[in-house]
Structure of TIGR01777 family protein:
Amino acid sequence: MNVLITGASGFIGSALIRHLLDTDRTVIGLSRKPEPLARRFGNRIKTVDDLAKIDADTSIDAIVNLAGEPILDRRWSEKRKQVLYNSRLDTTAAVIKLIQRLNTKPTVLVSGSAIGYYGSQPDDRMLDENSEGRNGFTHKLCADWESRALEVQRLGVRVCLLRTGVVLGHGGALKRMLPPFKMALGGPIGSGRQWFSWIQLDDMVSLIDFLLQHQVLSGAFNATAPEPVTNAEFSKQLGRVLGRPAILPMPAFVMRLALGEGAELLCEGQRVVPVRLQQAGFEFRYPKLDKALAASL
Ligand code: NDP
C-alpha cells in the first residue's frame, strides 16, 4: 500500500510514517520544507513540497490529510483564525485536485477534523458522532473541513473523518503543558469541571491504520479514548505520574489573555466518546489516562 500523507512532518504525521514503514507500507510525505523530513526518514520515503508536482500516473492507494497551522501556537485574532481555516481548507482542496488528476484514484481519504466540531459544551452530556455541533469558530472550521473532504466521495473515494481529541505523546500538547507541572506549578484550568477528551498517540496512529484497512467504514469517527476526564482529574493524574503536586489553579482569565478566543478549547470542553470506532471493533491500547500518560512522558 502506498500512502500519501499531508502534514507528514507533524506530531501525528511523523508517528504515522514510522508505523507505516515498520509495517511494510510505502509513504509519500507532503511538507512545505521537505528536506528535514527526507533527512529524518532517508530514502525510505518520498517527499514532495507541492501536490501539484505529483505525476498523474503515480500509484497512491490511500491519502491521510492532516495538514494545518498549529491551533494553539498564537493568540486567536480574526487574522489568525483565517490562517487556521485557510491552511486546512486549501490543503484539502489541493488533495481533491490531485485525486481528480490521478489516473487511478486512491480507495480512501482519511481526513482531519477535531472534537472542536462539537463546540464548547458546558454540560456533562456524552457526545457521539451523531451529536450536534454548537455554533462557534471551531465548529465552523471542522464542519467546513469535513464537508470539503467529503467532496471526493463523488469520485468514488471512501472518506473517513477524524474528530480528534487532545493527542498525548512525546511532543504535541503535552510538551506545552509539562513545564509548569514539572515545577509543581500545575493545576486545573478555571473551574476544572470542564471535560478533557484525549487519546494516546499510539492509539491515534493505530486507528488511522484501522480506518485505512477497513473498507466498509466511512464518515465521522471520534478519535478519543473511551474515558474522557474532567480537567481537574487530568491535572491530578498528570501530577501523580510526574510525582509533583498539581493543585495551583490557572484562572480562566489568564488563559483568555494569552490565547484570546482559543482559550475556550482549554477553559470549556466536551465529553466525547468513540462510539463508532468501538462498534467497529477497534481496541484501544490505552483506554485509561494513567497508563496513557505514563507512556507519553
Ligand atoms: P502539527 O502541528 O504537528 O503538524 C501539522 C502539519 O501541517 C505540519 O507538518 C505542517 O507541515 C503542516 N502545515 C502547517 N501549516 C500549514 C500551512 N499553512 N499549509 C500547509 N500545511 C501546513 O499537527 P498534529 O500532527 O498535531 O495534528 C495533525 C492535524 O490533526 C492538525 O490539522 C490538527 O489540527 C489536528 N488535530 C490535532 C490534535 C492534537 O492534539 N495533536 C487535536 C485535534 C486535531 P510543514 O510545515 O512541513 O509543511
Remarks:
- The longest helix spans residues 78-101.
- The CA atoms of residues 112 and 255 lie 26 Å apart.
- The domain at 2-294 is CATH 3.40.50.720 (Rossmann fold).
